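Sat 14:20. Reprocessing the chain from the morning session after the first attempt stalled halfway. Input below, unchanged.
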Amino acid sequence: MVEEDFEQILREWNSIAENIPEEIFATLISRTKNLLSCFQETNALTVCQRQTFEANQLVLDVLKLLESKGGNRKLTLKQHKCAASILSSISRHKEGRQLIIEAKVVERLHAFLLTIQNEKNRDTIIQKIGQTILRCVPLHDLLVARCTYSALSYVPFGSSALSGDATSSDSSEESEEEEETGKGSLTDSRTCSFTNGTKKKSKKFHPPTNPYRSAEELEQYRQHFYPIGEQDDKDELANASQSMESGWTRQQIYEFVARRTKSIHGFRLIPCPDWINAVGSLVEEPFFIKDRTVCRSKLFKSLNLVLNPNSYRPVVVYDLDSQLLEAEQTRSIRMEDLETISKHHIGKPDAPLEFESRFESGNLRRAMQVGKQEYDLILNPDVNSCGRQQWFYFRISGEGVCPSNTYTFNIINLEKQRTLFNQGMQPVIFSVKRYLASGNQLWERSGTSICYYRNGFRQTVADQSYWSLSFTLRFPYDNDVVYIAYHYPYTYSQLMTDILTWQRSIFPHKDDRLRVTTLCRSPCGNPVPLLLIDFKGDAKSSCVFMSRVHPGESNSSWVMRGLIISALQNVVDSEQAHPLVILPMLNVDGTVHGCSRTELSNEDLNRRWLMPDLYRHPTIYHAKGLLEFMCRILDAKPVLLCDMHGHSRRFNAFVYGCKASQSWCPDDWSQMNGQGDHSAMEQKNDERDNDVAISIPVFVRLLQSELPLFDADQCSFEVEKSRETTARIVGWRHLGISNIYTLECSLAGSNQHPPQGPKHFNTNGYLQVGQALMKVTSTID
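Finished this time. Tokens:
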């Protein structure tokens, strides 16, 4: 554990014990500090072997402190809090867990938990001791075939993909640039080798070298800037609108696109909400208020599972691995939800629910009934991957859907330790019957008894447990068809339908004001769209926008949609200030297959901008080539580049940028007033110290003025060594784009509504972010 975490642990339980009589705790605190310090040593295991007796005795003494029943209720509560914090601190280390196991105190800890009164001031004790037990007991494997790997495998990449970025993605505060192996895994710029992440002695601080391409190779990208009359007639996207009948509705266009979308396996249906272009609710949706009693009961349920594994007897009601053996039906898929509803008219409360996820962007691997109206759900890892479960999107139907029942769903193989679900974020649901009855084309936030907690199932690639998201739903109609998702879906077929609709409705005839070409093809063979808006033959003063490099961050597509709609309106009104180069979906295949973070190669594409591979990362290879062509061949560096992302653990909207003065590399410091820092900065006084001046980019100030939910305090302009392969730093350092940003929007919502509490973002809110971004862009010189 890094030194910062170590100090935080000590402060945590030290503050609890500070008001307790010194004679009781002085020796105990000293012994614990010595033990934790022992864990920090290089030869920690050897040191602890020499102190086995003392360490075991410490654990037993702490347990005695828990089991003591003094007459002073206040003192006893403080004793328990301090003892629970000490045990939790010890159990965070592998050696500490071994000590607790050898002391044979796990069952006594569980027995102690059962005696604790159900009071709010004791929740911390229950949580810390419960977490300690779950860290120290044997964990169970998920009950799913081939639990080590995803149910989906892309054969061309084969086993090499499975051995790629196989580690958990839970580690960093930067969602779009989360470190794959833990925050700080490459933070020591003095000792870490950049190329492979292994420690290597080095006296140099130089950044990695960028392999520039030859001018001859970059010439291939000139075709994207040809006038429409000179474009390649074989470009599928440039001529896509001509292959459709003029009277087609949006639903018919969506079916046309969806049936041509390529995937590893065949899809079974077209989801109704995607087919009708469902959007988020138009009213404010507050976060759910956490119920501490529910969270307590969920923790005790997890403890019972690991201590009494024979009590867990689930019944499988849906299994993707078995379903994938069916014949492919990609070409014949259609929206069949209306037929599904017509099969039954009266619900049967005791019938099991029917699950389905074989549709575009769907993700649910297995559903198991564990109670009369309770289901444990297992998500599918990213394609060719062992992990990264976050995104979910599945359908529920059948006679078992009854308004008289309350259903509990537990997603049991999530990896992230922290999430805004723990603060009341709700999933989104769409009711097909409600749409038929009222014409309501809305996704709505729903779910009660929301709880996020550690469970007793073993992660595939880490010696730790998974986490569970539990929520309860009540459906309004008998025999309804209901879709449940992590966030508002925005599929590849929705994007292509939008593009074709814009071409037909705004520019019915080929027009240079909106050019659509194929940047390249994804590994699965899907065309990756490139949009040029209001391009008049000169790429200078252009602005570049990119989004959806991480498939699970669907909110970035809604922001991009708002930006494009606003830009097209500006073009029609002759008010567009800059030509726009737009890459609306960088990870097409990951989005199609319901991945959370990676593409089919099992690699985070935002970690491949320095040396992308043409075969494994074609989208990033050609996107970087396009930018390099603009900067080096056309001598037209973008005045702004913005890469849009979503954040799962922070509220509001904010940006990351690059400042040479905040770089890990001393070579950058000498360029603080040149290419290294933002070209347009504004001075303001630090609110904490009026004598300190802070430089902020004008772009950030303008965005804050246009967007009430923008949080400038969360913005960061650090250039970290561990991020050197991301789009933001590669574009800044190697292509010389000074105004380059990562725009982050929370996948949950905003907490800038005191005293009402946090509010969810809806799709209209994301569209407004895109519109504000477009307005700010028009003011940049």
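Residues 1-6, 42-48, 166-203, 673-693 have pLDDT under 50 and may be disordered.
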